[in-house]
Amino acid sequence: MIEATGLVKRYRRTTALDGASFTVRPGVVTGFVGPNGAGKSTTMRLILGLDRPSEGSVTVGGKSYRELAAPLREVGALLEADAVSGRRSARDHLRWIAKGARIPDSRVGEVLGMVGLADAAGRRITALSTGMRQRLGIATALLGDPPVLLFDEPLHGLDPEGIRWMRTLLQDLAGEGRTVFVSSHVLAELEETAEQVLVIGDGRIVADVPVTRLVAHRARRHVRVVSPDAAELTDALTSIGATVDSAGGGALTVTGIDAARAGTVARERGIRLHELCSRRGSLEDAVVSLMESRR
Ligand SMILES: Nc1ncnc2c1ncn2[C@@H]1O[C@H](COP(=O)(O)OP(=O)(O)OP(=O)(O)O)[C@@H](O)[C@H]1O
């Protein structure tokens, strides 16, 4: 469990966090989303004791990071700026960290296996690809088998197979009862992975809800229609009260009517359709709408 109360972080000219209070619960993947500069990385750094809040406090398992007796066994983290480098091999890098944290050497092989790096364990870190380094960062986070895990942009550098692997890993870790807190700008992926979402804007928490609820409340169902007569169709649909936006290439996004009504109107006017389908809104639609409503 992560608990933040009234977190404020001021830099000289910027207020990065402006009274953020939230709880991240165990057993589910919680996504952490918000525009660039909203305060996600700052929040992560405060949780990890890498920076001190100007006001307020944040605890992991009831204690501030600095009070944790064995930090790597309490909380594991992959930060965006974690880019490990060096001449050591992946295995030696992990051994070195394990030794410092009094974690048994046998755990190194385990975590290398968990992240799919067993075969690359002897390679120098500098010779690893971006995605492999990302996996090494995750292995480091898992080293102490901690109940709380923070991942800042964990999809960075991963290929499609890696992204799918990451989704399963995060869900498995949450399924084991851990607290899994993940920031990401890849909202389509987060929608598949996270159960809960914490939305931050201008240093304040603007939503803390189940992903499905945010999407249901904020992202409207719409109709997608593709027609070679898009202009004519737009006029026809607008005249019956629909809202029509161009999605490019003859595709239209229509709200205010359902797909059946759009199809009927097209037939009545003799307008050709190449595609007609009903779509639910996405997490991305929901977050964009939430942010726009605050302007
Ligand atoms: N060390 C620092 N000194 C001064 N300002 C900072 C510092 N770190 C962050 N900021 C500012 O605090 C605000 C929040 O930044 P933060 O990196 O937490 O946002 P973020 O949500 O992680 O953004 P992104 O999605 O771009 O990674 C920004 O305005 C940023 O410029």
TrEMBL record:
The residues covered by the ABC transporter domain are 2-227
- Gene Ontology molecular function terms on file: ATP binding
The record ties this protein, via PROSITE patterns, to: ABC_TRANSPORTER_2
SMART domains the UniProt entry points to: AAA
User: Does ATP-binding count among this protein's keywords?
Assistant: yes
Q: Which UniProt keywords apply?
A: ATP-binding, Nucleotide-binding, Transport
Show the Pfam families listed in the entry: ABC_tran
UniProt entry tagged with the keyword Plastid: no
Can you tell me which family this protein belongs to? Belongs to the ABC transporter superfamily.
What protein am I looking at? Answer: ABC transporter ATP-binding protein
**From which organism does this entry originate?**
Amycolatopsis minnesotensis
